[in-house]
Design brief:
The complex is a heterodimer of chains A (116) and B (209). Chain A has one domain: SH3 type barrels. Helices cover 6% and strands 42% of the residues of chain A. Chain A is built from 1 helix and 5 strands, in the order H-E-E-E-E-E. Chain B has 2 domains: 149 residues, Beta Barrel (Elongation Factor Tu (Ef-tu), domain 3), CATH 2.40.30.10; 49 residues, no CATH class. Chain B has a 6-stranded antiparallel barrel. Chain B has a 4-stranded antiparallel β-sheet with strand order 5-4-3-6. A two-stranded antiparallel ribbon of chain B has the order 8-9. The two termini of chain B are 16 Å apart. In chain B, 20% of the residues are buried. Classes of the chains: A mainly beta (116), B mainly beta (209). At the A-B interface, helix 1 of A face strand 1 and strand 2 of B.
Chain lengths: 116, 209
């Protein structure tokens, strides 16, 4: 195997759930305050995944106090305590940048209903 | 004892520190090296160690080289480079130097051959400013004026002009060794190193640490 890939393999996190574009996520991040470390959670819609292997990042968008906020989080960072998938989204593209131009109810992603 | 290493650039990736910081690193496939010759002041006028690196097909080695390796009882290698050392104590022909010669956290200078850019203009080669692209300027990426007027009536020596760019020997100083994988003969160096993937890389102690 390629040397770079084999080195990355040992550092890639395998404890995270399967994430899909459009999912509504709760990302629990470790925040350091002085000497203490606490968990801060950040909720939002997964609008893009970029990169592959160790350098993969996710872009999580939410509306906070009427302002759109997007956080780009490296997926393999130790700063992520855990990620919870709250609900799956029904989407038809890999990058949901169109949500940026929408307000209110139109800026929502339809929930994916699990069919038996 | 001076530390040195030869290697092949494998590519770039990143590394996460304890505090979550992502560090860009270059992966170098380094060593093992075989000492093929030890040069001493008495015999050669200076102290140096000649090392060989990389496997090569028997049929690709020419006869004179084959003879040299056979004399020292070694198998032929692809690259041979020489490193100057203060004292040759502790080196003898046939010694194997592995990537463990380097230590995590130490500063190194990395020497490589930069990627070839071909025949390049002054904008790419020297970072000259480009002219306006519109409003009928007719001066875009050209060379512009060469010199002054009848006085001095010549172009100064060293005038920056278009020409071949790249494939130069480039040294990057004071890069940090982030991690060493002795089992894979790999070393992770902070930042970028010159040259394409697969290019030969020389590593030695930082000169201006």
């Amino acid at each position: 195997m390629d040397l770079v890939k084999s080195i990355e393999q040992s550092m890639i996190r395998t404890d995270l759930p399967d994430l899909q574009i459009g999912d509504f996520l709760k990302v629990n991040l470790k925040v350091k305050e002085g000497n203490r470390e606490r968990i801060q959670s950040y909720e939002g819609t997964l609008i893009a995944r970029k990169g592959k292997g160790l350098t993969e990042t996710i872009n999580v968008r939410r509306i906070s106090y009427g302002v759109g906020v997007e956080r780009i989080i490296p997926l393999n960072s130790q700063k992520i305590d855990s990620i919870e998938v709250i609900r799956r989204g029904q989407v038809r593209r890999a990058k949901l940048y169109y949500l940026r131009d929408r307000v209110g109810k139109a800026a929502k992603v339809r929930e994916k209903l699990i069919t038996k | 004892m001076k530390n040195f290493m030869l290697g092949k650039k494998a590519g770039m990736t990143q590394l996460f520190l304890e505090d979550g910081q992502a560090i860009p690193v270059t992966v170098i496939e380094a060593g093992p090296l075989t000492v093929v010759q030890v040069k001493t002041t008495e015999h050669d006028g200076y102290n140096a160690v000649k090392v060989a690196f990389g496997d090569v097909k028997e049929s690709r080695v020419n006869k004179p080289d084959k003879g040299l390796y056979a004399k020292a009882d070694l198998t032929p290698k692809k690259f041979v480079r020489e490193f100057k050392v203060e004292s040759t104590d502790g080196y003898k022909v046939g010694d194997v130097i592995t990537v463990e010669a380097l230590k995590e956290g130490m500063l190194i200078d990395v020497i490589g051959t930069s990627k070839g850019k071909g025949y390049a203009g002054t904008v790419k080669r020297y970072g000259n400013t480009i002219g306006p692209l519109s409003h009928g300027s007719k001066y875009h990426r050209g060379l512009g004026a060469m010199a002054m007027h009848t006085d001095p009536g010549r172009v100064p020596k060293g005038k920056k002009m278009p020409g071949h760019m790249g494939t130069d020997r480039v040294t990057v100083q004071n890069l940090e060794v982030m991690k060493i994988y002795a089992d894979r003969n790999a070393v992770l160096v902070k930042g970028a190193v010159p040259g394409p993937k697969g290019g030969l890389i020389m590593i030695q102690d930082a000169k201006n640490a």
